[in-house]
Hints:
Elements: H1 25-41, H2 46-52, H3 60-65, E1 74-75, E2 78-79, H4 83-96, H5 98-118, H6 121-132, E3 138-141, E4 157-161, E5 164-175, E6 182-190, E7 195-203, E8 209-213, E9 225-236, H7 248-282, E10 284-285, E11 288-289, H8 294-322, H9 328-353, H10 364-374, H11 381-393
Parallel strand pairs: 3-6, 4-6
Antiparallel strand pairs: 1-2, 4-5, 5-9, 6-7, 8-9, 10-11
Helix pairs in contact: 1-4, 4-5, 4-7, 5-6, 5-7, 7-8, 7-9, 7-10, 8-9, 9-10, 9-11
Amino acid sequence: xxxxxxxxxxxxxVDLFALDGxxxxxxxxTRDRVRALVDEHVRPHVAGWFADGVFPRDLVPHLAEAxxxxxxxxxxxxxxxxxxxxxLAMAELEAGDSGIRTFxxxxxxxxxxxxxxxxxxxxxxxWLPGMAAGDLVGCFGLTExxxxxxxxxxxxxxxxxxxxxxxEGSKRWIGLASIADVAVIWAKADDxxxxxxxxxxxxxxxxxxTATPIEPKLSLRASVQCDVRLAGVRVPADAILPHHxxxxxPFACLDEARYGIVWGATGAARDSLGAALAxxxxxxxxxxxxxxxxxxxxxxxxxxxxxxxxxxxxxRLGRLKxxxxxxxxxxxxxxxxxxxxxxxxxxxxxxxLGGDGVTLEHSPLRHALNLESVRTYxxxxxxxxLILGRHLTGHAAFR
Length: 399
């Protein structure tokens, strides 16, 4: 380095396309702040959380203090961050662990977004400030044992009896349900204009509401997903979310969560690449570091290209979202491409680590296991492929 260049920051070898140069000072500050939170509060403990299959409740106040709960929402104690800032935060959280990003996503992009987008002023005042502060936890009950990719086939019903709604049914794979204070439950209801899918705010202390964690799991072990039973659950008439009936209601929230996944997957991929690079530089075989072998360099280059492409895609979608131009098929393209790519990176990184890569001392295989869930929830590969197929051809091929 010459004297004229000595003042420059060192170049990050993983940032192949100098992406940092396209971020504002506020965006970089958000990213670095969340990265520091993950370094301090997640990385030292996440292997133990994953091994023990526990979600760290004591992490929630730190997430709230950092303004990460409902951070893309405005008012009610929410940070009102831009889409790109939100995305950068999701990438840093998932670089720590998908389960931690999942908590923030379920709380903010699903449960809080449902209330913010579809709720009454009274419902927003009742729930959003406490959820933003981390004092209250929410969950989002859409998927059912027999209705995953086809939510229109849901069997959960809500019937108006006097001045109460009576909800009957079951939900499955509901994140945070056993630790939640309120559940956004989607059910088929006759709301006076026919039977339509409607959202209901159900305090989890309501008699008849039961949430049972699904165990054992091989993925998202530092998170919690549940079976939920709703047996004659009674809530007042004003528990219904008044706006946007039909499946458009939950789908609007799913798009928020899917957008976060586009970014989150890049974090898992980047962290996997970083682990492989560090190991390849330190591990010696045949008298040379692994990084000096052509086959290892080929793996590292392929992974770095995938990480860079995923980051560029996420940033493009973030700029479109901030400009009000992001469309659902774009989110599907981002989720499908980036999660699939991140899985390939995590699996390849594990091979660079050799046998050590199957231990929890290293992150890539943990990321790969988590990403198997991420590729399934908020729309499987097949669902997003069909969404894109419909966009390209004009023909819906879901049935």
